[in-house]
Design brief:
The chain has 171 residues and is mainly alpha-helical. Helices cover 74% and strands 0% of the residues. It contains five helices and no strands. Helix 3 runs antiparallel to helix 4.
Amino acid sequence: MISKKMEKALNEQLNFEMYSAYVYLAMSAHCESKGLKGFANWFNVQYQEEMMHAMKFYNFILDQSAEVELEAIKKPKKDYDTLLSIFEETLVHEREVTKRIYKLVDLALDERDHGTNAFLQWFVTEQIEEESSVNQIIDKLKLVQGNGNGIFLLDAELATRVFTPPAAATA
């Protein structure tokens, strides 16, 4: 059983994960509208990952006999100036997610809620990977400096990304 304070905090994160999915879906649509199908694919996979993250929170809350509280999802931005700017905004967003996960871990530790802390450790590791992935793309975008050939190659590379859900735990 989790505390009401933890329940509220986990629900806030569940809703933020849904918003994150919405942000990445909007970014995917933006890239698609610019003919950048590989970049659109990368953001579409991000969208799928965020939905899976939201469902992890959803299921954990229910497994703790707590109540899920779904909120309205804020409308995301839909236009971006450059590919570099869209990924720089992605990095800012992922850093916000990381900060939120760390606050949840701090709350779990303060409340001596070992089950929630154990649950959140997956997200701690996931955020390291998320930020690293975005940083690598930013580095490549800076390297090609808007060069069409470089963008074309990077678009082709990002088109190969596939959503792979984590393996289910076996008992």
